[in-house]
């Protein structure tokens, strides 16, 4: 004899038999309850049995989507993000009042019937026949749970959601069969637990824990009678009974629940009467979702973490798989962000550049030897209002950033590293005139050569007419002499430089290849602050380049189980010899101690770095490092429209902006705060023999920036013109100060929209 279930329910076999045995009645019920009355009685035996039998034996239950928590390296919360705000809790952590209230109002015979309540079906059928409409439903709490599983499985796809909720006989049959399966496998208490965790309570709250927090700012286990009755009443129609927007309607619905609880004996009549007199007592916590809610100004770092998760194959083979995991949530992501460094970066940015300024700043800090991103910030906050943006100015376009910015002279140390690796001595002397034409021809990769146009040769000059060689590498780097570095790249060739850049992770922000032209020595290719900070971390770690990483660990909660996920690892490889890196350290220490970057110095703490001012002062940079941190600061107009001459930044007026004057102090204050309390470490440096250049009075040049002059001329179409790589739609105009040279059409590849043009102001 079939075994009866505890609580008086029928076994699955009995449930199925009854269902199949009353197919005609089922047709009528479905017609009267869920479907328009006309023509629905035709369901009958003709199709119901076949449809029932053809359904898969087991219902797939997707993991419930939950909030994801993003933490800093110390475990502090940065932000919570979610597709659906939900925190799954066990039944023991849900108030008994809540359990009784939801059963009383949604399915008071829940513990007496099986998956299908035939008595309820007949009652609803009779009631609907009397009213001539659909005034009462007959779905059990178990059936409602199954329906919610279908909706959860549909996710945010509107077509799938419509299919999961459509009022058809086919959906009802599927719902009934799976309800029978769920009753057998889970039992009443687990069904109730799952139901309370999956159900939508309005105001973006999924599940009773999120609802308790949203409406009363407390946990579900602490809900009192009145609060539980209110939440239970919302379930039937979250929009109609929304207590935030319609307190009167919500109060009536709550009182209905209280009356029902008294009617079924869960509470006394006196308790119900007293509770009905109480105010709603809302203490609403507004939804806090997404990177816009991030603390410590870490909205863009939060967004970068999301981009990493959605793009890295380690989290799923396809984009769709990764997006599904992200949307399901339940993740705890511990990141590499150092709260001290992040705080220091944001404080320095706020002190030096206002969000309402015509230009913006962005900064990133990376840990040498590990690739860990310690901080990422910018002056224009993450948001949608005036002077806010969703574009992460610190990163490449593929990771939510923009097209990048010309790094100017901050690229020169990469040229120097390539030359040193090629065997050039550190005291190499070049004539370095104030003005010169680009040497020609210059070897490039794959046996190609770059050739200057003899009819209209491209020329360049240094920042000041007093900058006349000969110079050695140390002095030319400290003063950022343009002609020295162009002679250097012409001597060693272009390919060693682009190869070194690749080894150091230096790529264009828009993902395009770096062109084979000698002007790259002057930093003409757009890059992001994160790229430059990570590149200089290679010098700090004595030649070892480590790819940047933002995620330390990820744990994923599915149901009651928490598992660890694999995360991307930094890949470290040798980009240059230790001797080359140590030589660069010695050169760039000179920039800070006695060159263009003196305003960026960290006092008694050893530091090294390079300034850059580019493209008619559309951008200015300082990129520097200590042995334990590397950072990059960019200042400029992201739209590439405002030149930084005659400008006010952070409440201070500037005639001309140099990399050492605005980005330098931002970097100094940022790194001082980030390094406070950290050990003072010394560089490994090499002795650079004195080349004994001719004497000159350089005092007037100390502290002056390095911005050389270029001609922001007219771009040409892509292609080779006399061996030159072409550009797109460059802007027009003269240099600052007025340049006395020009570049041929198509000299440098520009990104369009008034971008590089033909060269720009290289420094």
Brief write-up:
The chain is 35% helix and 13% strand. The chain is elongated, with a radius of gyration of 34 Å.
Task: Record the SSE blueprint.
Elements: H1 12-21, H2 23-33, H3 44-54, E1 68-71, E2 77-81, H4 96-106, H5 118-131, H6 141-154, H7 158-165, H8 169-186, H9 188-198, H10 208-216, H11 225-234, H12 247-263, H13 269-277, H14 299-311, H15 319-328, E3 331-335, H16 339-352, E4 360-366, E5 373-378, H17 412-421, E6 429-430, E7 435-437, E8 442-443, E9 449-450, E10 459-461, E11 471-472, H18 473-479, H19 482-492, H20 495-503, H21 529-540, E12 544-546, E13 551-558, E14 561-565, E15 572-574, H22 578-594, E16 608-614, E17 619-626, E18 629-636, E19 645-649, E20 652-656, H23 663-675, E21 720-721, E22 724-725
Parallel strand pairs: 1-3
Antiparallel strand pairs: 1-2, 3-13, 4-5, 4-18, 6-11, 7-10, 8-9, 12-15, 13-14, 16-17, 17-18, 19-20, 21-22
Helix pairs in contact: 2-3, 2-5, 4-11, 4-12, 6-7, 6-8, 6-9, 11-12, 12-13, 14-15, 16-23, 17-19, 17-20, 17-22, 18-22
Summarize the biggest pleated sheet: 5 strands, mixed
Terminal CA distance: 91 Å
Instruction: Count helical runs.
Output: 23
Please state the CA-atom Rg, rounded to the nearest Å. Answer: 34 Å
Number of strands: 22
Query: Percent range for helical residues?
Result: 25-40%
Low-pLDDT runs of 5+ residues are 1-57, 133-137, 693-763
Instruction: Estimate the global geometry from the Cα principal axes.
Output: elongated
In which order are the strands of the major sheet placed? 2-1-3-13-14
């Amino acid at each position: 004899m079939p075994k009866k279930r505890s609580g008086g329910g029928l076994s699955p076999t009995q449930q199925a038999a009854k269902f199949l045995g009353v197919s005609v009645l089922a047709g009528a019920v479905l017609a009267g309850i869920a479907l328009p009355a006309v023509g629905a009685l035709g369901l009958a035996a003709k199709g119901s049995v076949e449809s029932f039998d053809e359904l898969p034996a087991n219902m797939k239950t997707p993991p419930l989507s939950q909030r994801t928590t993003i933490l800093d390296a110390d475990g502090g919360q940065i932000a919570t993000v979610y597709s659906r705000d939900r925190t799954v809790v066990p039944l023991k952590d849900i108030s008994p009042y809540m359990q009784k209230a939801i059963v009383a109002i949604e399915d008071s015979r829940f513990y007496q019937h099986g998956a299908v309540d035939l008595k309820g079906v007949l009652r609803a059928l009779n009631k609907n026949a009397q009213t001539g409409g659909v005034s009462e439903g007959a779905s059990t709490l178990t059936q409602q749970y199954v329906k919610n599983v279908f909706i959860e499985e549909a996710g945010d796809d509107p077509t799938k959601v419509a299919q999961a909720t459509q009022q058809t006989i086919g959906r009802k049959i599927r719902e009934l069969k799976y309800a029978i399966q769920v009753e057998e496998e889970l039992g009443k208490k687990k069904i109730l637990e799952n139901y309370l965790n999956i159900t939508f309570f309005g105001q973006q709250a999924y599940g009773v824990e999120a609802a308790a927090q949203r409406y009363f700012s407390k946990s579900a286990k602490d809900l009192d009678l009145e609060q539980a009755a209110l939440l239970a009443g919302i379930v039937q129609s979250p929009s109609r009974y929304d207590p935030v927007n319609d307190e009167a309607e919500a109060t009536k619905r709550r009182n209905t629940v209280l009356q029902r609880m008294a009617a079924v004996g869960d509470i006394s009549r006196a308790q119900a009467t007293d509770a009905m007199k109480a105010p709603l007592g809302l203490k609403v916590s507004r939804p806090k979702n997404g990177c816009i809610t991030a603390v410590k100004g870490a909205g863009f770092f939060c967004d970068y973490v999301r981009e990493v998760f959605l793009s890295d194959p380690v989290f799923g083979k396809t984009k769709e798989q990764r997006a599904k995991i992200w949307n399901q949530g339940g993740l705890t992501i511990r990141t590499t962000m150092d709260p001290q460094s992040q705080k220091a970066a944001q404080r320095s940015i706020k002190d030096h550049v206002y969000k309402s300024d015509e230009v913006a700043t962005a900064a990133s800090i990376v840990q040498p030897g590990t690739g860990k991103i310690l901080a990422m910030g910018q002056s224009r906050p993450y948001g949608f209002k005036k002077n806010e943006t969703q574009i992460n100015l610190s990163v490449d376009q593929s990771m939510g950033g923009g097209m990048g910015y010309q790094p100017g002279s901050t690229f020169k140390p990469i040229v120097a590293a390539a030359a040193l690796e090629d065997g050039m001595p550190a005291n190499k002397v070049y004539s370095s005139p104030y003005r010169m034409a680009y040497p020609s021809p210059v070897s490039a990769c794959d046996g190609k050569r770059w050739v200057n146009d003899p009819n209209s040769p491209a020329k360049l000059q240094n920042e000041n007419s007093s900058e006349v060689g000969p110079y050695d590498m140390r002095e030319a780097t400290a003063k950022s002499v343009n002609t020295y570095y162009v002679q250097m790249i012409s001597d060693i060739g272009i390919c060693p430089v682009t190869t070194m850049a690749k080894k150091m992770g230096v790529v264009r922000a828009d993902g395009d290849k770096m062109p084979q032209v000698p002007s790259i020595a002057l930093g003409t290719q757009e890059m992001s602050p994160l790229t430059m900070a990570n590149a200089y971390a290679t010098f700090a770690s004595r030649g070892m380049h480590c790819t940047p990483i933002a995620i330390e660990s990820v744990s994923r909660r599915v149901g009651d189980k928490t598992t660890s996920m694999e995360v991307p690892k930094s890949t470290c490889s040798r980009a240059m010899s230790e001797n080359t890196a140590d030589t660069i350290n010695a050169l760039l220490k000179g920039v800070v101690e006695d060159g263009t970057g003196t305003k960026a110095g960290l006092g008694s703490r050893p530091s090294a770095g390079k300034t850059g001012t580019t493209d008619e002062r559309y951008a200015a940079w300082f990129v520097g490092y200590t042995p334990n941190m590397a950072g990059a600061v960019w200042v400029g107009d992201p739209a590439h429209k405002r030149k930084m001459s005659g400008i006010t930044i952070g409440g201070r007026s500037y005639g001309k902006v140099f990399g050492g004057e605005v980005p330098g102090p931002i970097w100094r204050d940022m790194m001082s705060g980030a390094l406070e309390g950290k050990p003072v470490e010394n560089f490994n440096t090499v002795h650079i023999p004195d080349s004994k250049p001719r004497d000159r009075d350089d005092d007037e040049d100390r502290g002056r920036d390095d911005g050389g002059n270029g001609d922001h001329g007219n771009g040409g179409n892509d292609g080779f013109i006399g061996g030159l790589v072409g550009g797109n739609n460059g802007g027009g105009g003269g240099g600052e100060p007025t340049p006395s040279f020009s570049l041929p059409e198509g000299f440098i590849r520009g990104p369009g929209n008034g971008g590089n043009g033909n060269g720009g102001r290289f420094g």
